[in-house]
Amino acid sequence: MSTPDGDATVGAAITIAQAVAHDAERGIDYLAYFDASFTLTVSARSADGSWTTVHPRQPLSDASGTQVGWRRVTLPENASDSHEELSLALDSRGALHLAGAVHNQPMLYWRVSSPGDLGSLEFRTELAGTAKWGFLVAFGLENTVSYPRFFTGGDGSLHLIFRNGMTSAGNEYIYNYDPATTTWSSATGLAPLWNGAESFTASPSAFGPYPTTPSWRDDADGGAYHVAWVWRGNDARNSGLSYAWSRDLVSWFPVDRTPANPGAPLTLPFQPAQPATLVDPGSFGGLVNGQIQLGFDYSNRIVITYPRNNARGETKLYAARPSGPANGPASVWRVSDLTATANLSQNVTGDPTESYVSSWSGAQTLTSNTMWHTEPVSLEDGRLVVRYACANPARGTVESRMFRASDTGTSGVTFGREDVFDTRPALAREITERDPATIRYSLATRTAASDPFVLRGTDGWGQDHFGERVRLVMRWEAGPFVADNVWPARSSYPAEGTLLRLFLVAAD
After folding, report:
1. Helices (H), 91-167
2. How far apart, in whole angstroms, are the C-alpha atoms of residue 213 and residue 150?
3. Closest CA to 503 of 476, 482, 478, 484
4. Which long-range contacts (CB under 8 A, 24 or more apart) does 123-130 make?
């Protein structure tokens, strides 16, 4: 365990997704978080165990937009919420990038000018330092930003995905970073990759896309990016679970196209009700943005797992997988209810309209408020394992559970063979258990994890786990997820925040 100098604390009133990253070349660990006063903070732990901490600044502008100075980024109470998440990444040269702390606001983005030197972290846009608020590519693409998230390609290339626009009338863009010129460009020019609305004026037909972060997967044809998404309407309902893949983030293809002979790419931008990308219309409701998980089976085919309602109004956990070889011409989506009794006639084409026996045996009715699905399918002992958490009203607890599902060759059907408690080793008690000093408050343990990496002797964590595949886990305690800018009563959390701790854990 390690902590930033002076026992750093994190704001405890509300939960916000924070970030941690590791620079393998230099042995530096980076943490981005909101401190006890909800001021944006970045700390770096060097290989010798010493810490450096900075507070990123943003331009201070007058009413005309003219920059008149700089200020720290502090989230105001009851005027910000849990949407203002943070994202960290390192480019191929080891330079640190930071984005976030926005929800329907102009893009906030920082980058170091010298890899490994946190003190060189500066606000970076094309117009930074001039008289007007800057931008990365075009202000019209970055003036109402939410959910900026970095991701990398198979070659180590760095990319940024974000929404511009409102919840039910937004567009989604992907930017590509060039480390040689230290500039960003849009993968699709000035047009969005997803077009939720022609304008940001909500209407009965207005939708906003909620994509997964594009995931690179190596394959026999050189690899591709894969992404799934849902569309959220201005009635706050999600529909139209969709999927596409791309080799270059520019040309995109449906599940039945092969990389060797893809044919004409899909028409862009993606729009609601686009048949070629549709996986599951979600006609009965219950699709939840943020709980769509994209993974792969033993044959390298896509497996999308997600909760949604069935015809009887019950929230169930589903798996969508293509038949035939991965991205083959015969591929069609097979949607399976993992909680249903294995019955080919009921599971191949989608949700059954007739009654069926559920593995829940009527003991519990699941809803989107009592079930959480937050990680993609994993491959274990010849089975597809789908993990989720579920509230148990009888016990007043949240249970970690998993489906062990079949892998049925090329049929695409996915049957839940058994639903059991999650047997995976849990994180150490010092990570998961509440701190006695704050136990009187209505808080929960929160964590953020880095991507896996192989520990080297120069990483500053000692020799005990040298050569092992590990990840960093940042741990703190905080209050609820707040989506409406209304913070809990001050008596429900410690004004001094909660301790921030960094742990090294096994990655697998």
Report:
1. none
2. 8
3. 476
4. 123/56, 123/57, 123/58, 123/59, 123/70, 124/182, 126/183, 128/59, 130/67
Question: From CA 480, how far away is CA 273, in angstroms rounded?
Answer: 34
Residue 75 has which token pair? 């989230």
pTM of the model: 0.91
In sequence order, the 6+-apart residues with CB closer than 8 A to the CB of 3 are 499, 500, 501, 502
Residues linked to residue 43 through DSSP beta bridges, in sequence order:
31, 53
Question: Does the N-terminal peptide bond of residue 329 adopt cis geometry, omega within 30 degrees of 0?
Answer: no
- Give the pLDDT confidence of 346-369 residue by residue, as tens digits: 333 333 333 333 333 323 344 444
Nearest to 255 by CA among 202, 294, 298, 292: 294
Helices (H), 43-113: none
Largest interatomic CA distance in the chain: 67
- Per DSSP, 91 falls in state -
- Which amino acid is located at 24 in the chain? A
Is the pLDDT at 273 greater than 70, yes or no? yes
Q: Are 137 and 159 in contact (CB under 8 A)?
A: no
Cα–Cα distance, 285 to 244 (Å, whole number):
22
Q: Is the dihedral of CA 195, 175, 87, 120 positive or negative?
A: negative
Q: Which helix (H) or strand (E) holds 432?
A: helix 429-432
User: What DSSP designation does 348 have?
Assistant: S
* CB-neighbour burial class of residue 153 (10 A; exposed 0-12, middle 13-18, buried 19+): middle
Element containing residue 346 per DSSP (H, E): helix 344-347
